[in-house]
């Protein structure tokens, strides 16, 4: 963007006519140039040697067919990328907006030079003498401030919700600890009851054995 700004002619030079909305101007042309360069580098990276290394068997036995497939793939990739780029440019009206930026910057520089020539004494902070970066920041700052405020409010609400959740989790932990403690007490009671039942069963068997032995002794005495 800085390189593009340096190339914008001043009012004192023979400035080219401002392009129409659909004719790419300085910045729109630069955007298209950057895309073309990036696409060319991508296609160069997909060289035949790199492509063939992924398919060693066809490259060894049918190299001509594999190279044909590679050429068709690159052509399809280039065609699809350009079509999608043009679709985005048209959908976002990028050429129109970039041309408008070119016009604003050119007019601002022309007015600044005219005021300096006439000695009007305008302050450097006047909107019409601002450069592209200052205009960009001036238009973007209110939106950024609003977004920052929204993010801060969202963050505060999230922190409050997290605090409530933390308190809820802490209360649930305490309740679980109480339940576990009560469960341990119940388990202890059950174990005690089981021990007592086992002891009672043993004493009952001993009593039954003693009664049976007494019966047997009495029958022997009667005989």
UniProtKB/TrEMBL annotation:
Residues 1-24 have a biased composition (Polar residues). Keywords: Cell cycle, Cell division, Centromere, Chromosome, Kinetochore, Mitosis, Nucleus. GO terms for cellular component: MIS12/MIND type complex; nucleus. Residues 1-27 are annotated as: Disordered. One of its GO terms (biological process) is chromosome segregation. InterPro entries: PMF1/Nnf1. It holds the Pfam family Nnf1. It comes from the Eukaryota. This is Nnf1.
């Amino acid at each position: 963007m800085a390189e593009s700004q340096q190339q914008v002619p001043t009012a004192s030079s023979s400035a080219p006519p401002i392009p129409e909305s659909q004719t790419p101007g300085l910045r729109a042309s630069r955007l298209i140039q950057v895309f073309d360069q990036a696409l060319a580098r991508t296609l160069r990276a997909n060289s035949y040697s790199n492509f063939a290394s992924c398919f060693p068997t066809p490259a060894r036995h049918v190299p001509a067919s594999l190279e044909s497939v590679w050429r068709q793939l690159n052509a399809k990739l280039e065609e699809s990328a350009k079509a999608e780029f043009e679709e985005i440019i048209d959908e976002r009206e990028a050429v129109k907006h970039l041309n408008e930026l070119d016009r604003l910057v050119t007019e601002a520089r022309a007015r600044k030079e005219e005021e300096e020539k006439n000695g009007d004494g305008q302050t450097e902070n006047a909107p019409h003498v601002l450069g592209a970066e200052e205009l960009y920041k001036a238009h973007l700052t209110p939106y950024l401030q609003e977004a920052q405020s929204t993010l801060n409010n969202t963050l505060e609400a999230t922190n409050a919700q997290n605090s409530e959740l933390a308190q809820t989790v802490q209360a649930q932990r305490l309740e679980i600890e109480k339940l576990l403690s009560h469960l341990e007490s119940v388990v202890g009671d059950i174990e005690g009851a089981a021990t007592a039942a086992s002891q009672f069963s043993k004493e009952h068997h001993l009593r039954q054995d003693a009664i049976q032995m007494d019966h047997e002794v009495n029958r022997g005495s009667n005989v």
